[in-house]
Request: fold
Amino acid sequence: MVRKIIHIDEEKCNGCGICATACHEGAIEIIDGKAKLTREHFCDGFGDCLPGCPTGAITFEEREAPAYDEAAVLKAKQEKDRLLNWPVQIRLAPVQSPYFEGAKLLIAADCTAYAYAKFHSEFVAGRATLIGCPKLDGVNYSEKLTEILKQNDIRSVTVLRMEVPCCGGLEMAAKKALQDCGKMIPWQVVTISIDGKILD
Reply:
């Protein structure tokens, strides 16, 4: 069918992610630093994503496209374990982003996603997610995390780590960021055993 649908000019797109956050249907994703309309049948043609685009990369067009599928959109919204943001690596994540505003923040050690079977449903669900491994990356994340906490309205922080000693670096970086950000933010640390159980 021919209908009104958004068009994203990738040359103008700066990958800020404002459109992906504004799209209540989840039709837009940031892939390789560019906004992409990944689910045409999720685009309702109302253009909630248009006003916030700082570069004018999004416009309407009329073209052949699948019909808007409200049932599929509702089903997708009910999937609680959907990742809310990209990128997730602490080193790659922006310091300030719309997906951090009012967010519950999960700071997870890389290995936790593989060690704990319900990682998505119990920890990623409803949270902005950042992952890292200070041992592999060879960095102290505290400065970056401090800036993220300072520059965004983070509602809570959950640190998810493994019981192994190297994960202590992630926990310490998060705690230092919480101390240095100048805000009182509720936080917790959850530890996963090497056999995939929650210890705390």
About this structure: Helices lie at 18-22, 70-78, 112-115, 119-124, 134-137, 142-151, 168-180. The first strand starts at residue 2 and ends at 8. Residues 100 and 110 are 20 Å apart (CA to CA). The longest helix spans residues 168-180.
